[in-house]
Give the backbone structure.
Amino acid sequence: MEPRLSFVTLAVADVGRARAFYEGLGLVAARPSNPSVAFFQLSQGLVLALFGAQDLAQDAGRPVGAPGAVALAHNVRSEAEVLALLEQAAALGGQVTRPAGWAPWGVFRGYFADPDGHAWEIAYNPQVRWDEDGGVWLD
Amino acid sequence: MEPRLSFVTLAVADVGRARAFYEGLGLVAARPSNPSVAFFQLSQGLVLALFGAQDLAQDAGRPVGAPGAVALAHNVRSEAEVLALLEQAAALGGQVTRPAGWAPWGVFRGYFADPDGHAWEIAYNPQVRWDEDGGVWLD
């Protein structure tokens, strides 16, 4: 396996509702999106997808499970951006499960759950290097 | 929210066991990894992390849930690579939940669950454009 993630697909109860939440946060659905699946092209060259839970279970050949076992982190450039994005997510129907604060390992972060319960960490992490596409590098 | 994913963290029962599985698949743990957390730098500028389930629940302020609500897709360049990687995952203790085959939407794919149950789709998708870093672009 080469070190690469190509798509990250979230199981959702209602693709339209989930799509509206992420559009409200500022993401723009890509052209191949349709009522059954929504795609968001991410700047580093991977895709965030929203797919009906039953459709995903059928495709994967397994039950979908309960959200939270995977946490998606979105890094931002300041503490103020962490606070603003958590507030925006809450206003759109997300639930803040961890208010913003400094972790013992030196990251200012908070978490929200999207309307389907998927866990997002919004983080200001001074320890990682950024590139011009928004990518992060550990060293 | 800018269109970016920075870290994808998988809740695991045993960081050492999970790390060994992904190292067996060919990933190389990054220098900041330790017994409590493992990091894999991905080529597009994001990080795959393995973190103890209780640690993640505590950090996120919420229960971890059951794996499967998020599917991680790893695209490869041929049908043969899909078959080989599913076979390798199974040999390392993964469970193939969907044997490889063509989906109605024109993707040759199969799924496996890692030792903690996280869902991976291995896919040959002739419809996306690749860049030199392994990134995929919808158009």
In short: The longest helix of chain B spans residues 79-91.
